[in-house]
Write a structure and sequence with these properties.
Structural class: alpha/beta
CATH class of the largest domain: Alpha Beta
Strand content: 15-25%
Helix content: 25-40%
Number of helices: 8
Distance between the termini: 30 Å
CATH architecture of the largest domain: 2-Layer Sandwich
Number of domains: 2
Radius of gyration: 20 Å
Strand order of the largest sheet: 5-4-3-6-7-11-10-9-8
Number of strands: 11
CATH superfamily of the largest domain: archaeoglobus fulgidus dsm 4304 superfamily
CATH topology of the largest domain: archaeoglobus fulgidus dsm 4304 fold
DNA sequence: GCGACAG
DNA sequence: ATCTTGTCGC
C-alpha cells in the first residue's frame, strides 16, 4: 500500500477505489480509507471530484490477487469430514488489538469445561483487516499461540469453508497444521441461511446455532454436524466456552500491557 | 450492474 | 477489532 501511495505524483489525487483495485480487490476499499486517511496526506480522496487530476495508473502486481490464488490452491486440501481419533482437548484462540499490536490468547479445556492450559503472545501485525483476507492478518498470531501445543481440535473466531473461496481462517489454520478446526462467527461472511444450515448454492457450508445466532462452519478435518455438536456441548453462553475464555484472556492481556 | 462483506 | 456511558433486564 505504501508503494502505491508513493506513486501518486505531486498535485494529483487518487481514490479509495482506484487504490483498492491496484491492490487487487475492490473489497479492500475500507482498509484503504483507514490507512490512506492518515498516511497519504490528503492525496487520497473518497471519490472523483470536479477539477482534480486523478491518478490511477499504478505500477502494481495486484498483491491481493496472488493471495486469492493461494487461497484457491490451498482450499483443495480442505477435508470436510471428521478426521480425528478423539476429542479430549479443545483449544480456543482469540486476539485483541491496540493499534498494530496484537495480544493473542489460547485456552485449552476438556469437554467438561475444565481448563487444561493457557498461553498468551504479543506481536506486531501489519496486514490490515480486509474481508475475505482475514487470515493474512491474524493467522501469524494464532500460529505463534499454537507453537508446541497439541490440542485435538481448535476453535477460532472466523469462518471456515463459509467463505467466497471456501477458505476462511479456520480452514487456513487447519490445512497448515493438518489439524481439525471449527470456525465460529457472530456475523455471516458469505452464504445463505436455510433452516438451520448455511449454503453456498447447493453446498452445505455450515450451520446456525442459538437464539441470538452464531454461525458455525468447518475449517478442516471436521463435518458440519460434528462442528455443531462440539460447539453446542461447550456453549455456556452464546459463544463456546474456549472462545469465550480466550476472548477474556486476550482482552486482559491487552489491558495489562500498557495503560 | 451495484452494494455488501468474518475480526 | 476498537472507540465509549449509560442503561435495560434477569
Amino acid at each position: 500500500m505504501e508503494l502505491l501511495l508513493r506513486q501518486i505524483p505531486e498535485g494529483m489525487f487518487s481514490t479509495y477505489d482506484a487504490i483498492a483495485i491496484a491492490l487487487g480487490d475492490i473489497i479492500a476499499r475500507d482498509a484503504v480509507r483507514e490507512f490512506a486517511g492518515i498516511k497519504a496526506g490528503g492525496k487520497v480522496i473518497p471519490g472523483i471530484e470536479d477539477g482534480i487530476m486523478l491518478f490511477d495508473k499504478f505500477e502494481t502486481e495486484f498483491p491481493l490477487k496472488k493471495l486469492r490464488n493461494e487461497q484457491i490452491m490451498m482450499s483443495k486440501r480442505v477435508v470436510t469430514e471428521d478426521d480425528f481419533e478423539k476429542i479430549e482437548r479443545i483449544a480456543g484462540m482469540d486476539v485483541a488489538y491496540r493499534g498494530n499490536t496484537a495480544y493473542g490468547a489460547y485456552v485449552e479445556m476438556d469437554m467438561k469445561g475444565n481448563v487444561i492450559e493457557k498461553n498468551t503472545e504479543t506481536m506486531e501485525v501489519n496486514f490490515p483487516y480486509i474481508p475475505t483476507y482475514f487470515s493474512y492478518r491474524e493467522l501469524p498470531v494464532l500460529e505463534k499461540l499454537l507453537e508446541g501445543r497439541h490440542p485435538d481440535i481448535v476453535m477460532v473466531n472466523g469462518s471456515g469453508i463459509a467463505h467466497p473461496r471456501h477458505f476462511g481462517m479456520a480452514s487456513h489454520l487447519g490445512v497448515l497444521h493438518s489439524l481439525p478446526v471449527i470456525g465460529i462467527t457472530k456475523r455471516l461472511l458469505c452464504g445463505e441461511v436455510r433452516g438451520k444450515y448455511i449454503y453456498m448454492g447447493k453446498e452445505k457450508v455450515g450451520a446456525v446455532y442459538g437464539k441470538k445466532p452464531i454461525y458455525i462452519s468447518p475449517g478442516h478435518k471436521i463435518s458440519v454436524d460434528s462442528s455443531v455438536a462440539i460447539s453446542k456441548e461447550l456453549c455456556r453462553y452464546r459463544i463456546p466456552e474456549p472462545l469465550m475464555q480466550a476472548h477474556v484472556l486476550a482482552t486482559e492481556t491487552k489491558n495489562e500491557n500498557n495503560l
